[in-house]
Specification:
By secondary structure, the protein is of the alpha/beta class. About 40% of the residues lie in helices and about 20% in strands. β6 and β7 (about 125-130) form a beta hairpin.
């Protein structure tokens, strides 16, 4: 019984400490989605079943070398095969070729305006991973595949 209690307490502590990021994300057509239920929203619009892992790429500008490098890695990952969607945000400009964040939302997620950050969110907005450097394709796919 004591062992069960320890396991339950560990599960509760993990769940209670999970950080959830609830932000608005826009597609290239200006349609808005919430990070906490993007899968349900996509399902209602496109009649598909999809609980994506959301990768948020944040940088000072779209021209930032780290943003471009992470975007290139993102372009090489099939969203349907791995269940990953990517969104890009900067505090100074709006990305227009895919999912994006409003500049004020991007700024609120960055420690400072010159920083670079990658956030990996589960389908309910729970932070699965974060990095201050470019994340490899293998790491992103591994995180997403564990969610499927």
């Amino acid at each position: 019984m004591k062992r069960l209690w320890v396991v339950l307490m560990a599960l509760w502590a993990t769940t209670a400490s999970a950080e959830v990021v609830d932000i608005k994300i826009y597609d290239a057509f200006g349609q808005s989605y919430q990070s906490v239920n993007i899968g349900a929203r996509l399902a209602s619009i496109y009649n598909i079943s999809f609980d994506p892992t959301m990768v948020i790429i944040l940088g000072p500008t779209l021209a930032d070398e780290r943003v471009q490098q992470q975007e290139k890695i993102a372009a090489g990952i099939d969203p349907e095969e791995h269940g990953i969607l990517f969104a890009i945000g900067t505090p100074s400009e709006t990305y227009s070729r895919g999912f994006s964040l409003a500049p004020n939302t991007a700024a609120s997620l960055m420690p400072d305006p010159e920083s670079f950050r990658v956030l990996v969110l589960g389908a309910n907005g729970t932070v699965l991973s974060r990095s201050g450097s470019v994340m490899s394709r293998e790491r992103l796919v591994s995180i997403a595949d564990r969610q499927q």
